[in-house]
Amino acid sequence: MEFVVLLLIFGFITRRLDRRLKIQEAEIALLRGRLDKALAGALPSQAVAEAAPTEAEVAEAEALPEEVGEPVFLAEAEEPAPPPPPPTTVQPATPAPARPGWRELEDSLASRWLIWLGGGTMALAAAFFIKLSVDHGWLGPSVRVALGLLSGLGLMVGGEWLRRRPMQRAVAALRPDYVPPALTAAGLFTAFISVYGGYALFGLFAPLIAFALLAGLSLAAIGLSLLQGPFIAALGLLAGYVSPLLVSTGNPDAWNLFAYLLALNGSGMAVVLYRGWRWLGWGALAGAALWPLLWMIDPWRSGDALPTGLYLLLTSALFLVPAVRGVLDQTLPEPVPATGWRTALPDWVRRKRRHPADRLAMTATMVFGVLVAAMTWRDSHGSVSQIVLGLFALLALVGGRRTERIAGVAWIAALTVLLSLAPWNLPYVPASPPPLNADGQPLIVADPAGYPAAVGRFLWVAGGFAALFGIGGFIALWDARRAALWASLSALVPLALLTLAYALVEPPETAIGWPAAALGLAALLVGATTPLGRHRHRPGASLGLAAFAAGATGAIALGATMVLQEAWLTVALAMQVPVLAWLERQLNLRELRGVALLVAAAVLVRLAVNPSVLDYEGYGWIAYGYGLPALGFLMAARWMRSAPDGRGDDLVVMVLEAGALIFTTLMLSLGVHRWMAGSLEAAPSSLAEVALHILSWLGLALLLAVDRRWNARPVAVWGRRFLVLMAAATALVLHLVVLNPLWTFEWVGTWPVVNRLLLAYGAPALLGLLYLWYDPPRSRVLRSAAPVLPLLLIAANLALEIRRTFQGPVLSGYRMSDAEWYSYSAGFLLFAVAMLVVGIRFGWGWMRHAGLVLVLAVVAKVFLSDMSDLEGMYRVASFLGLGLSLVGTGWLYQRLLRPPAGGTPPEPKPEPPHSPADDLPTDDLLNQRTH
């Protein structure tokens, strides 16, 4: 039944193909007839009518200038030409009607998908026939395999024969022809499964012969793809990479496998070069990289480093070939336009627009670099793997210098070296003579230089790679179009290797050779700037100088790291920022700003978010550990901002200014905490300490608002706003709620007025009002609401001070005398009157209104509480004082705010002399601030 269905499907597809081919043959004949008539000068009348111009086109052509320029070559086009004639309005051409969607779908199904479906169906038919013959025992195994091979070969020959037919060539000239590739693909599949079936099912082929036949079919498919299209090439590559998985000899050999894969990779890349199928290169990269990874996971044996390394080296070179030889465009990749913080980064850091062949080369180098590093780990950093790693680095240097569009492969190789050496397991280097065992023998055998032999070998390897990249990068930068990249490679890779060696070896603190090596590297980098400085006019030379300067400062910082500890290390790192700023100003190397930004970010992370600083011993380190970096950042920001090119004020300057402000704030806060708590690890818990924090923040914000050199800077504006907001939130949450001495039993002092209450409530309130005087908020709503918190703190200070007068230094408790209750009324009434006077005198309507509200609150307290709670003279004094205050308040309003009663205007009199009363505000000056 299945066979009948397959025959029906095959008949239907054949009928559709035959009909389609007849239609195409008729179209080709019609086109040939028209072409012959056109060459003979006798076009059909309909074609002449279609080619005749319309009246509008004739009128438009008459309106154009009579003289029309002839086409010229590029050399002639470079000469100055006369100005072009004025543009004329051209009517847009009417677009051709779009084909219906169903027609496009029908055409695609008939001309492409049905053909591929037919090829696959024929391949399945061959598989079903073999299965049917096996089930019924019609044919022997050898006959079945032979018939399968002959069928596959016949389909491949038929596909190539059909491709060579004139009709199919005519079809291929008009549109893609999928019939010959479909037949060839079906033949390849049939032959492939026949060979595999003969090997796996019937045992007719030895593993080596089966593998050779499968490999031959894969290479044949790759060769046929040059004639029949990319699908055949993809099929051949897929079959080639799968064949080693299907055929197993039971004794895997790295030499045979990687030799075969290398030939397969070479064939695939040859097709990529010849036909330009970029996607095929990505497929070949996936297959070429997957096999060595699988080999290192399971079948790896001792001695496989040499064949695996050679395969990785040669395959890496293969994938560099399309970028070196297959692309004629030699222009350098342009960086993507930068926005925001990316503008501070140098061009060689930013992402580039690359040609597809360059992307393939860069990606392949990254992939095989990771594989080389993995092979080095798998080989336990043996000599062979180290040689392969060195050759890979040399290949990247030569290839990048040969074609500078892909010069980034040199940096990829440098990262590969660092990745390979990073997990090297080294023995411990003791600072003193090694301990002895029971027999009196040392536990660690050290060489005469004081290091174990394994450590010495590692140092030689790291030194060799440092020399390779340092000297090679310096040689490559001369006459190079990307001098900055080679200079950065020469300067930074040796520095990174020295840092890695110091981190892995962990030498004793008394070893002086390490800082001497760092200073020697700095001296070499400074010396390298001398010959390069003579050629500053060349493109990229300034960037090269910046790279060498950055490397020298980094080497000095590394030397300081080897000698200094804890806070002084941070100071040494932070001092590199003003050094870079000074070099940028003296040498006019704007590229150093990116390096300064990276160093500043590292120092910020180390000082601002590093919890280990809390473990530093001593007290004085806070002053120089934060003060000197803040001073260095300010100096660097000032030097960079005064750049002569007018572009000095940028993101780097803002980061440096923000870092200086952060360091200053942390210095004050940590100093206060260390002084009050005795240890940086303790949590702040006392009211006095929190008050000192708030006063330091408000004082710093006030300084930023008063200083005319900084108050308009964005960092100063937003910095003081953040400081004030942080102080306000702390005072509102901690002072008024959490740490309020009414319920914390905290000792507030025995002196009147001058005590911890004034420190915690009065002083922050006065400092906050002073800040609002110098830097009032721009929003009218905020100007009205901002003084509420300072007045609330003053009111809390007054209330708590009255409480302290009657309760003593500890305010907690529930007892309250009549004198204390009366004092609250008297004190807040006087405070309200003072607010009224100040508000009227300075024209602050918000304060006058707040005073009135407070007066009403005191009146309510007197009538609702004092009348029943107070007795004797305290009740009399409460009401008497309230009455006198209310009368006095009314008199003040009449005296200072009410204008004289209306009436007949008096006769003009001589103008009296000016008196201080003339300066009193009137109604129109209310809600205004005068000072």
Helix/sheet category: mainly alpha
**% residues in beta strands:** under 5%
Oligomer: single chain
Number of strands: 2
Low-confidence stretches: 1-7, 42-106, 108-114, 444-448, 899-931
What is the rounded distance between the termini? Answer: 106 Å
* Order of strands in the sheet with most strands: 1-2
Count of DSSP-assigned helices: 34
Average residue pLDDT = 74
Q: What is the CA-atom radius of gyration, in angstroms?
A: 44 Å
Main sheet: strands, sense, barrel? 2 strands, antiparallel
Proportion of residues in helical segments:
over 70%
Shape: elongated
Q: What layout of secondary structure does this protein have?
A:
Blueprint: H1 2-40, H2 45-51, H3 55-63, H4 74-77, H5 101-136, H6 141-164, H7 166-174, H8 179-200, H9 207-228, H10 230-246, H11 254-275, H12 278-297, H13 305-325, E1 334-335, E2 352-353, H14 356-378, H15 383-402, H16 408-421, H17 453-476, H18 483-505, H19 513-533, H20 541-563, H21 566-574, H22 576-587, H23 592-608, H24 621-641, H25 651-677, H26 687-706, H27 714-738, H28 741-744, H29 756-774, H30 780-785, H31 788-807, H32 818-842, H33 845-869, H34 873-897
Antiparallel strand pairs: 1-2
How would you portray this structure in words?
There is one protein chain. This protein is mainly α and 931 residues long. Helices cover 70% and strands 0% of the residues. The chain contains 34 helices and two strands. The protein has helices spanning 2-40, 45-51, 55-63, 74-77, 101-136, 141-164, 166-174, 179-200, 207-228, 230-246, 254-275, 278-297, 305-325, 356-378, 383-402, 408-421, 453-476, 483-505, 513-533, 541-563, 566-574, 576-587, 592-608, 621-641, 651-677, 687-706, 714-738, 741-744, 756-774, 780-785, 788-807, 818-842, 845-869, 873-897; strands at 334-335, 352-353. The protein has a two-stranded antiparallel sheet. The longest helix has 39 residues, at 2-40. It is elongated, with a radius of gyration of 44 Å. The model is unreliable at 1-7, 42-106, 108-114, 444-448 and 899-931 (pLDDT under 50).
